[in-house]
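Standup, Tuesday
Yesterday: got the pipeline producing C-alpha cells again.
Today: sanity-check two examples.
Blockers: none.

Example 1:
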Amino acid sequence: MKKSKNIIIGALLIVILTMAVGYSAFATDIPINGSAEIIGEWNVRITNIEAKDVSEGCNAGTPEYTNTTAKFNAKLNKPGDKVSYEITVKNAGTIDAIRNECKFTSDEEHGSSAIIYSNTEPSETLLAGEQTTVTVTITYDETVTELPEIKTKSVTGIIEYVQK
C-alpha cells in the first residue's frame, strides 16, 4: 500500500511538472507600456494698460501692470473731467478661456461721491492667442457744485477667466 501511494504521488508530481512545462511553453508575456503628458498651457494675463481720453488739465499718472494686476492713479481737476484706462488681457496660452466674473466695486462708504467709476466688459470667450480689452473710466461728477470734503475714491476690480 505504501508503495502504491508513493507511485501515485510520484505520478501526480510528474503530471504537475509536465503541465507546468507545457503551460510555460505556450504562455507569452505581452508587455504594454504607455505614458501621458499634459502639453496645454494656461496663460491668461494683462499685457498692457494705457491712459485714454484724458481731459485737459487732468493727470493720468503712469499706469502700471504685471501679468495679473493693473494699477492707475488719476488726478481730476474740475467737474466733468475724466480719465479712461484701457487694459489689454491676452490669452497667450493654448487653452481656450471663458470669463467667469467681471466685477468692479468702489469704496462708496469712505470714498468721494463726486468720483464715478464705470467699466466696459471684456470678451466673454477668449480663445488661445486672442486678446480683449476692458476700459475703466473715472469721472468727476459734472453735477457737483461744491468742492467735496472727501477727495479720493478707490476701485477694486476682478476679471476671472476659467478653462473653457
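Example 2:
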Amino acid sequence: MGKSLIQQKRGKGSPRYRAPSFKYRGKAGFGRYESGKQITAQVLDIVHSSGHSAPLMELKYSSGESGLLQAPEGIRAGDQIEIGENSELKSGNILPLKSIPEGTSIYNIESNPGDGGKFVRTSGVFARIITKADDGIVVELPSSKRRTFMPECMAAVGVLAGSGRTEKPFLKAGTRWFAMTAKNKMWPHVSGTSMNSVSHPFGGRSSHAKGIPTQSARNSPPGRKVGKIAPKRTGRRKR
C-alpha cells in the first residue's frame, strides 16, 4: 500500500508547501548587457529579501532600467558600479571572465552568457579564477570543485556580503522554525524510521532503529520507492 510521503506532498505544489515568493523583493541578477558596451549603475539602497541569504542592492542602470543584485562587502548606497570589459577591477564591478585576472575573487557567475548569474550567490562566499584559456576559464567554486566557464560569461568582482550568517546560533527551535518558514524550507528533518508506520515505509514498531533495509527496487510502487533507489552495490566496501 502506498503512503503519502512528505516529499510527494511538497512536490505536488499545494499552498501549504509552496514558496512564499510574493514576499520576495524580486529576481536578483545582472541586467541586460550588450557585448562591447560600457554602462554604469548607481546603488540606490541595500535591502533584505527573505528569498535570498545575502543582502541585495537596488541598482539604477544608465540605460534607465532598474534591478536587484547581491551586494558585495564594502558597498554602500550612492556608490557607482561599472559593467563592461573595460571596467575597473573594483568590488561590485561586473566584467566578463576573460577580462578578470587569475586569482581574483568573484561571485554571481553566469552559466551561459546573458542568463544573469547562476553560481556563487550565497552570503559570504566567493570563487577564484584558476586558469584562463581561449576556449574556457577554470574557476574554483566555494565547494573547492573546479568548473570551466565560457570566456564571455559575466561575473561580479568581490566577496558577497553577509559572511558570518551561519555562525550565529539559533538557540531555540522556534527561532529556527520562523527562519525556515520565511523561505518555506522543509524543517524539521525527521528520519523515516522515527515516523509512524502510516507515514513512512520505514516507520512503526515503537522504536527508532528497526533494521529495515533502506534500498528499494527499481520497480517498487510509488509509496515504497524511498531510501536508496536500486543501488549499484550495498554493504561495506572491501579494501
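Quick observation on example 2: The helical segments are 6-12, 173-183. The chain has two domains: 23-166, 167-229.
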